[in-house]
């Protein structure tokens, strides 16, 4: 028993000694750092001044890049076209193809930094649009995981809205750059021809729906007139009259949808909403006037630390 207690005391004593040595080493290193900065005080101050001056110059001449968030509707089956154009523009920006970018944006082509696009996933709205969509979704979901189906890029064409993030340098040209960008996107001859066809068809549909509403109104009116004349033959039964009223309400709802679609069809790629010049929030976003003095001091200190480390390793290597 006495031997066990002695062993425990030795272990605890060894642990306390090592802990004490560790804290002594930390304190010794702290004072070495202080001695280093005291020894090179003038050089460190000079580096801070130089770094601050260079950082001030960078801040005063830098053009900040802003994010511009857009919600768009690709009409006339133009989803693939839109995504292909966005990819092509990004590739041209990375390749530095100034001729292509001038064709897209004119004199402001250098301000465009990049474009990101993704679908606004609205699966429930897609399913509720028609019975066919319900059947399509049921067939696909039976063969594929629900989450995989939603995230699959190929299904993006089924969603009405898409989100575009356009990075532009400078806050005074954002609206001009985006306006020129969408003028370029909407000059596709094939889609321009589609636009005319869709608009004409939608106008005709609205007109025909109004004609059907007028016909239903005349039938309801005829029914009311026949009931006010007991001797006349009843043109429409009560059940038929309720059916006509329900049908009229359905037609009026359809007219609203058609008018909304007509409003959407004003452009091949239509901007629904745009938020300009949004600053990118970054973690620890220091000013250049702060960053460059820190960089220079750390670089200077790191150089001497490497020399110190090499000397220490050399002594350790040649020690017995």
Q: Overview of this structure, please?
A:
The protein has 320 residues and is of the alpha+beta class. It contains eleven helices and four strands. Strands 2-3-1-4 form a four-stranded antiparallel beta sheet. α2 runs antiparallel to α11 and α9 packs antiparallel against α10. The longest helix is centred in the middle third of the chain and has 39 residues. The chain is elongated. The relative contact order is 0.14. The mean pLDDT is 78.
Question: What is the terminal separation in angstroms?
Answer: 41 Å
Question: What is the H-and-E element order?
Answer: HHEHHEHHHEHHHEH
Give the neighbour order of strands across the main sheet: 2-3-1-4
Shape: elongated
Based on helices, strands and strand pairing, what is the structural class? alpha+beta
**Beta-strand proportion:** 5-15%
Whole-number total of structural domains:
2
Number of strands: 4
Using the CA coordinates, give the radius of gyration: 37 Å
Low-confidence stretches: none
Biggest pleated-sheet summary:
4 strands, antiparallel
Secondary structure: helix percent: 55-70%
Mean pLDDT: 78
Q: In DSSP terms, counting alpha (H) and pi (I) runs of 4 or more, how many helices? A: 11
Quaternary structure classification:
single chain
Q: What key phrases describe this protein's structure?
A:
320 residues, elongated, 68% helix, alpha+beta, 11 helices, 4-stranded antiparallel β-sheet
């Amino acid at each position: 028993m006495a031997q066990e207690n002695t062993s425990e005391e030795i272990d605890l004593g060894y642990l306390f000694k090592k802990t004490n040595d560790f804290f002594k080493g930390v304190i010794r290193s702290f004072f070495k750092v202080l001695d280093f900065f005291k020894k090179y005080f003038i050089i460190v101050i000079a580096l801070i001044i130089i770094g601050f001056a260079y950082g001030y110059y960078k801040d005063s001449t830098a053009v900040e890049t802003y994010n511009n968030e857009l919600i768009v509707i690709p009409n006339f089956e133009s989803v693939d076209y839109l995504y292909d154009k966005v990819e092509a523009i990004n590739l041209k920006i990375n390749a530095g193809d100034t001729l292509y970018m001038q064709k897209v944006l004119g004199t402001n082509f250098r301000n465009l930094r990049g474009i990101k696009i993704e679908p606004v996933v609205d699966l429930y709205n897609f399913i509720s649009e028609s019975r066919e969509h319900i059947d399509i979704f049921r067939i696909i979901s039976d063969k594929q995981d629900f989450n995989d189906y939603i995230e699959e890029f190929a299904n993006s064409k089924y969603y009405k809205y898409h989100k575009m993030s356009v990075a532009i340098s400078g806050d005074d040209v954002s609206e001009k750059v985006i306006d020129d960008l969408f003028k370029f996107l909407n000059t596709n001859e094939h889609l321009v021809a589609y636009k005319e066809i869709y608009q004409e068809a939608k106008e005709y549909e609205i007109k025909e729906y109004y004609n059907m509403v007028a016909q239903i109104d005349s039938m309801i009116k005829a029914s009311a007139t026949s009931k006010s004349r007991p001797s006349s033959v009843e043109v429409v039964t009560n059940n038929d009259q309720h059916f006509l009223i329900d049908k009229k309400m359905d037609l009026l709802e359809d007219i609203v949808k058609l008018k909304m679609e007509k409003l959407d069809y004003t452009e091949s790629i239509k901007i629904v909403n745009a938020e300009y010049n949004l600053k990118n929030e970054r973690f620890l976003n220091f000013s250049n006037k702060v960053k460059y003095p820190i960089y220079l001091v750390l670089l200077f200190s790191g150089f001497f630390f490497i020399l110190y480390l090499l000397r220490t390793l050399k002594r350790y290597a040649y020690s017995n």
